[in-house]
Amino acid sequence: DHYERGSGLMDVIEAEDMGMPGSKKDATAVANNRRIRECQQPLLLNWALALMRRKQWHEAERKCTEVLLDIEGNSVKALFRRGQCQVQLGNFDDAKKDLLKARDLDSSIADDVEKEMVKLKRQQKVLDQKDRSWAQKALQKGLADERSAKTAKSASLQDQPEECRDKETSKARLMPSTPSSAPAGASLVEVLAAQEKAASEAHVDDDTYARQREAI
Fold first, then answer.
1. What's phi and psi for 13, nearest 5 deg?
2. Is the pLDDT of residue 157 over 60?
3. Torsion angle, CA of 68/71/74/80, rounded to 10 degrees?
4. Does the predicted TM-score (pTM) go above 0.70?
5. What is d(CA 98, CA 74) in angstroms, rounded to the nearest whole number?
6. CA Rg value for the chain
7. By three-state DSSP, how is residue 160 classified?
8. Are 40 and 47 in contact (CB under 8 A)?
9. For 54-68, 112-126, 190-204, which range has the lowest pLDDT when averaged over its residues?
10. What is the structure's pLDDT at 205?
11. Angle at the Cα of 174 (from 169 to 175), degrees rounded to 5?
12. Shortest CA distance to 80 belongs to which of 43, 125, 117?
Protein backbone atom coordinates (compact mmCIF):
# COMPACT_ATOMS: atom_id res chain seq x y z
CA ASP A 1 0.00 0.00 0.00
CA HIS A 2 1.58 3.28 -1.13
CA TYR A 3 -0.04 5.34 1.64
CA GLU A 4 1.23 3.00 4.32
CA ARG A 5 4.75 3.02 2.85
CA GLY A 6 4.78 6.81 2.59
CA SER A 7 3.54 7.22 6.15
CA GLY A 8 6.23 4.87 7.40
CA LEU A 9 8.96 6.90 5.67
CA MET A 10 7.84 10.04 7.47
CA ASP A 11 7.48 8.44 10.88
CA VAL A 12 10.81 9.90 12.03
CA ILE A 13 9.86 12.58 14.54
CA GLU A 14 12.99 13.93 16.24
CA ALA A 15 13.42 14.70 19.94
CA GLU A 16 12.95 18.44 20.41
CA ASP A 17 14.06 18.80 24.03
CA MET A 18 17.78 19.33 24.57
CA GLY A 19 18.64 17.30 27.64
CA MET A 20 16.61 18.07 30.76
CA PRO A 21 12.85 18.72 30.61
CA GLY A 22 12.07 22.41 30.45
CA SER A 23 15.30 23.24 28.70
CA LYS A 24 15.50 25.11 25.41
CA LYS A 25 14.18 23.18 22.42
CA ASP A 26 16.32 22.17 19.49
CA ALA A 27 15.26 24.62 16.78
CA THR A 28 16.43 22.31 13.99
CA ALA A 29 14.42 19.36 15.34
CA VAL A 30 11.34 21.56 15.79
CA ALA A 31 11.59 22.77 12.17
CA ASN A 32 12.12 19.25 10.82
CA ASN A 33 9.16 17.88 12.79
CA ARG A 34 6.93 20.68 11.54
CA ARG A 35 7.76 19.86 7.94
CA ILE A 36 7.16 16.16 8.54
CA ARG A 37 3.74 16.83 10.09
CA GLU A 38 2.83 19.16 7.25
CA CYS A 39 3.53 16.32 4.83
CA GLN A 40 1.86 13.68 6.97
CA GLN A 41 -1.47 15.49 7.29
CA PRO A 42 -2.56 15.40 3.61
CA LEU A 43 -1.18 11.89 3.31
CA LEU A 44 -3.27 10.62 6.23
CA LEU A 45 -6.37 12.50 5.06
CA ASN A 46 -6.10 11.08 1.53
CA TRP A 47 -5.45 7.66 3.02
CA ALA A 48 -8.63 8.00 5.09
CA LEU A 49 -10.58 9.02 1.97
CA ALA A 50 -9.32 5.98 0.06
CA LEU A 51 -10.35 3.71 2.93
CA MET A 52 -13.79 5.31 3.07
CA ARG A 53 -14.33 4.63 -0.63
CA ARG A 54 -13.57 0.99 0.13
CA LYS A 55 -16.04 1.17 3.07
CA GLN A 56 -13.30 0.43 5.59
CA TRP A 57 -14.85 2.75 8.13
CA HIS A 58 -12.91 1.70 11.22
CA GLU A 59 -9.53 2.11 9.52
CA ALA A 60 -10.53 5.46 8.00
CA GLU A 61 -11.75 6.74 11.36
CA ARG A 62 -8.39 5.86 12.92
CA LYS A 63 -6.46 7.83 10.28
CA CYS A 64 -8.60 10.91 10.88
CA THR A 65 -8.12 10.54 14.63
CA GLU A 66 -4.35 10.31 14.10
CA VAL A 67 -4.43 13.68 12.35
CA LEU A 68 -6.54 15.26 15.09
CA LEU A 69 -4.45 13.89 17.96
CA ASP A 70 -0.92 14.18 16.57
CA ILE A 71 -0.97 16.95 13.98
CA GLU A 72 -3.90 19.40 14.05
CA GLY A 73 -6.77 19.19 16.52
CA ASN A 74 -8.96 21.56 14.48
CA SER A 75 -8.48 20.01 11.05
CA VAL A 76 -11.81 20.54 9.30
CA LYS A 77 -11.25 17.72 6.81
CA ALA A 78 -10.28 15.28 9.55
CA LEU A 79 -13.33 16.20 11.66
CA PHE A 80 -15.72 16.02 8.72
CA ARG A 81 -14.42 12.70 7.42
CA ARG A 82 -14.30 11.17 10.88
CA GLY A 83 -17.89 12.32 11.35
CA GLN A 84 -18.83 10.54 8.11
CA CYS A 85 -17.16 7.36 9.38
CA GLN A 86 -18.93 7.60 12.72
CA VAL A 87 -22.30 7.81 10.96
CA GLN A 88 -21.57 4.57 9.10
CA LEU A 89 -20.32 2.91 12.31
CA GLY A 90 -23.48 3.86 14.20
CA ASN A 91 -21.66 6.17 16.64
CA PHE A 92 -24.23 8.89 16.21
CA ASP A 93 -23.34 11.11 19.17
CA ASP A 94 -19.66 11.21 18.17
CA ALA A 95 -20.61 11.79 14.54
CA LYS A 96 -22.81 14.74 15.40
CA LYS A 97 -20.08 16.27 17.57
CA ASP A 98 -17.44 16.02 14.82
CA LEU A 99 -19.71 17.27 12.05
CA LEU A 100 -20.98 20.28 13.98
CA LYS A 101 -17.48 21.23 15.08
CA ALA A 102 -16.28 21.06 11.45
CA ARG A 103 -19.18 23.30 10.41
CA ASP A 104 -18.39 25.79 13.18
CA LEU A 105 -14.76 25.97 12.04
CA ASP A 106 -15.66 26.36 8.37
CA SER A 107 -19.16 27.60 7.50
CA SER A 108 -18.55 26.92 3.78
CA ILE A 109 -19.19 23.20 4.39
CA ALA A 110 -22.55 23.79 6.09
CA ASP A 111 -24.49 22.21 3.21
CA ASP A 112 -22.28 19.11 3.25
CA VAL A 113 -22.68 18.81 6.99
CA GLU A 114 -26.46 19.09 6.64
CA LYS A 115 -26.47 16.20 4.15
CA GLU A 116 -24.53 14.06 6.61
CA MET A 117 -26.91 15.00 9.42
CA VAL A 118 -29.82 13.79 7.25
CA LYS A 119 -28.00 10.46 6.81
CA LEU A 120 -27.38 10.34 10.56
CA LYS A 121 -31.06 10.83 11.37
CA ARG A 122 -32.06 8.22 8.81
CA GLN A 123 -29.61 5.70 10.24
CA GLN A 124 -30.77 6.48 13.77
CA LYS A 125 -34.39 5.90 12.77
CA VAL A 126 -33.55 2.52 11.23
CA LEU A 127 -31.64 1.50 14.35
CA ASP A 128 -34.49 2.61 16.63
CA GLN A 129 -36.97 0.54 14.59
CA LYS A 130 -34.71 -2.51 14.86
CA ASP A 131 -34.42 -2.00 18.62
CA ARG A 132 -38.20 -1.72 19.00
CA SER A 133 -38.73 -4.84 16.89
CA TRP A 134 -36.20 -6.77 18.97
CA ALA A 135 -37.81 -5.61 22.22
CA GLN A 136 -41.28 -6.66 21.02
CA LYS A 137 -40.02 -10.09 19.98
CA ALA A 138 -38.24 -10.54 23.30
CA LEU A 139 -41.38 -9.54 25.21
CA GLN A 140 -43.59 -11.86 23.17
CA LYS A 141 -41.15 -14.73 23.65
CA GLY A 142 -41.03 -14.06 27.39
CA LEU A 143 -44.82 -14.09 27.68
CA ALA A 144 -45.05 -17.25 25.57
CA ASP A 145 -42.46 -18.99 27.75
CA GLU A 146 -44.36 -17.98 30.88
CA ARG A 147 -47.64 -19.31 29.49
CA SER A 148 -45.93 -22.54 28.39
CA ALA A 149 -44.48 -23.02 31.87
CA LYS A 150 -47.89 -22.54 33.50
CA THR A 151 -49.53 -24.94 31.03
CA ALA A 152 -46.84 -27.56 31.62
CA LYS A 153 -47.20 -27.27 35.38
CA SER A 154 -50.99 -27.62 35.18
CA ALA A 155 -50.69 -30.66 32.89
CA SER A 156 -48.14 -32.21 35.24
CA LEU A 157 -50.52 -31.87 38.17
CA GLN A 158 -53.37 -33.37 36.16
CA ASP A 159 -51.21 -36.35 35.19
CA GLN A 160 -50.34 -37.17 38.81
CA PRO A 161 -52.30 -39.93 40.61
CA GLU A 162 -54.93 -38.70 43.02
CA GLU A 163 -52.90 -39.87 46.01
CA CYS A 164 -49.93 -37.69 44.93
CA ARG A 165 -52.16 -34.65 44.54
CA ASP A 166 -53.67 -35.29 47.97
CA LYS A 167 -50.21 -35.28 49.53
CA GLU A 168 -49.55 -31.79 48.10
CA THR A 169 -52.72 -30.33 49.63
CA SER A 170 -53.04 -28.77 53.06
CA LYS A 171 -53.49 -30.61 56.31
CA ALA A 172 -57.14 -29.56 56.45
CA ARG A 173 -57.88 -31.30 53.13
CA LEU A 174 -56.66 -34.60 54.54
CA MET A 175 -59.86 -34.71 56.64
CA PRO A 176 -62.43 -32.93 54.48
CA SER A 177 -65.54 -34.49 56.06
CA THR A 178 -64.46 -35.49 59.54
CA PRO A 179 -64.25 -32.47 61.81
CA SER A 180 -62.80 -33.29 65.21
CA SER A 181 -65.10 -32.96 68.22
CA ALA A 182 -62.18 -32.79 70.71
CA PRO A 183 -62.23 -29.61 72.83
CA ALA A 184 -59.41 -27.08 72.58
CA GLY A 185 -56.45 -28.02 74.75
CA ALA A 186 -57.39 -31.71 74.75
CA SER A 187 -54.67 -34.33 75.20
CA LEU A 188 -53.41 -36.48 72.34
CA VAL A 189 -55.43 -39.45 73.60
CA GLU A 190 -58.63 -37.37 73.60
CA VAL A 191 -57.91 -36.04 70.12
CA LEU A 192 -57.32 -39.55 68.76
CA ALA A 193 -60.53 -40.81 70.41
CA ALA A 194 -62.51 -37.93 68.92
CA GLN A 195 -61.05 -38.61 65.47
CA GLU A 196 -61.88 -42.29 65.70
CA LYS A 197 -65.48 -41.50 66.65
CA ALA A 198 -65.86 -38.98 63.83
CA ALA A 199 -64.38 -41.40 61.30
CA SER A 200 -66.70 -44.16 62.43
CA GLU A 201 -69.75 -41.93 62.10
CA ALA A 202 -68.61 -40.78 58.62
CA HIS A 203 -67.89 -44.37 57.51
CA VAL A 204 -64.50 -43.37 56.03
CA ASP A 205 -62.35 -45.96 54.30
CA ASP A 206 -59.10 -47.32 55.74
CA ASP A 207 -56.81 -45.08 53.63
CA THR A 208 -58.59 -41.92 54.70
CA TYR A 209 -58.59 -43.08 58.32
CA ALA A 210 -54.84 -43.67 58.14
CA ARG A 211 -54.19 -40.20 56.62
CA GLN A 212 -56.29 -38.60 59.34
CA ARG A 213 -54.19 -40.34 61.97
CA GLU A 214 -50.96 -39.17 60.28
CA ALA A 215 -52.26 -35.63 60.21
CA ILE A 216 -52.86 -35.67 63.95
1. -65, 130
2. no
3. -50
4. no
5. 10
6. 41
7. coil
8. no
9. 190-204
10. 78
11. 145
12. 117
